[in-house]
Design a protein that fits this description.
With 113 residues, the protein is mainly alpha-helical. The chain contains six helices and no strands. The chain has a single domain, classed as Serine Threonine Protein Phosphatase 5, Tetratricopeptide repeat, CATH 1.25.40. The chain is 42% helix and 0% strand. Pfam families: Ank, Ank_2.
């Protein structure tokens, strides 16, 4: 599958996950998009969905094998080493935090300052 990227390295999967478009995420995963692809700063579709509170998308990405403990690149300009769990917690998305913990997300502090 040929994957187009935006200026920050986001794929269609990133955009769909960030905006909570579950049906589009399902289609893209079925078409073979890499569930763990990252933008140039290391953000994954799971991180974007978790940060924005898109519960159904988070569940779908986890089911598809998304790495629940993956961190953003700590050396990228805007990255802070955060995980999807940290992003969901930061925004108060308790149901997503509980789900990520239940599937093995690391609960140790992960941000780098």
């Amino acid at each position: 599958m040929s994957v187009e990227k935006t200026g920050n390295g986001a794929t269609a999967l990133h955009i769909a996950a960030q905006n909570g478009h579950d049906a589009v995420v399902a289609l893209l995963l079925k078409a073979g998009e890499n569930v763990n692809a990252s933008t140039y700063d290391g953000s994954t579709a799971l991180m974007m969905a978790a940060q924005n509170g898109h519960r159904r998308v988070v569940w779908r990405l986890v089911e598809a094998g998304a790495d629940v403990s993956r961190r953003k690149h700590v050396h990228a300009t805007s990255a802070d080493g955060a995980t999807a769990l940290f992003m969901a917690a930061q925004q108060g998305h308790n149901d997503i935090v509980e789900h990520l913990l239940s599937v093995g997300a690391a609960s140790v502090p992960t941000t780098v300052r």
